[in-house]
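Issue 218. Parser rejects a valid record. Input:
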Amino acid sequence: MKKLIILFLAVGLLTTTALTSCKKENAKAPTASSTTKNSNTALMRVVDNNFNQAALTGVSKSTQGFLVFTTQEAYENVLNIITTFTDEQLNGWEDALAFTSAYTAFGDPATYGVSAQDNKNQNFGDPLMLRLLDVSNMVQIEGFVFNVQTDNGYLLEMNQSHLAAHYASLKAGTFDASYMNKMDESAVGANDDDIFMVLRTGVIGINNPGGGTPSAFGSEGDSYNDDLYNANARYRASAKIAYQKAGIYFSLVSELKYTKGTSPAWATKTNIGLTTPTSCNVTPHKRGGYSVGKPGGVYDNKLTWRAYSSTRSLDHFDMRNTWSYYSIAATWRTIGLYKYK
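Output the parser choked on:
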């Protein structure tokens, strides 16, 4: 692995745009009417006026509360759409499906009556995956129901035909080889496209012990911190590139955060963004490579560029970022990161 970090001063100004949105209430055809799935008005969220209806195609909520994607293709299609959503749009997507994700529930544990220790994916750095899981870390794709536990180094899988009799066991994360698979990265051979090729053979009883590190199927990343001090206060711009693998979800993400203090750090507003030259090329497993365009938009103290999210792993990637942010020194600073595989 090779990492190149460049820190230099630059002058510029980002144009700020505004996003307006309104609440939708019908899961199949949202309207502008206001509604909420919870009587607590603090939980009201919104869907953008230009909400993409395709994000609701091929996905629904099960009676147990987790999402069900009709096919792997439907899952991929929804991923391709929601990976571009803002947090506000993702909130609206959940509301349109009458769904409460792990991201939402563990983000407000008191309201939803959950404990942080129930989140089995605390060390997985891409929050979009938590949008796909329910509070029990579960999701169904085709006929395969998963309990994803990246912190423990594996995921559990059970065919939906066993769901009626054994849902409680899967929800609790209790493995039983007679009707489940316990899978880490070794369950997917080097010649397979994805975990679904293994499961479509009808295999039952796979028992991989899982890894001892966060993110069940591995994680590669580089990061850089730019620390500034003013009146005994510490300001930090933290940039990172991370490629993470979790069996049913693979992502390549670059992010910049700007915070104040260290214990704990809190958000400090500043204009930040990606500047040129910035590029990313990816090559999914057994697929042709392509270039990924950088995002645009309005950002205060955090910008996340999710260049890739899919059920397919990456054979290669080449990600070059130049982050800019307006610092406490009343000047523009930049951080450059470069990572490839």
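Fixed in the parser; the record now loads. Residues 72-82 form the longest helix (11 residues).
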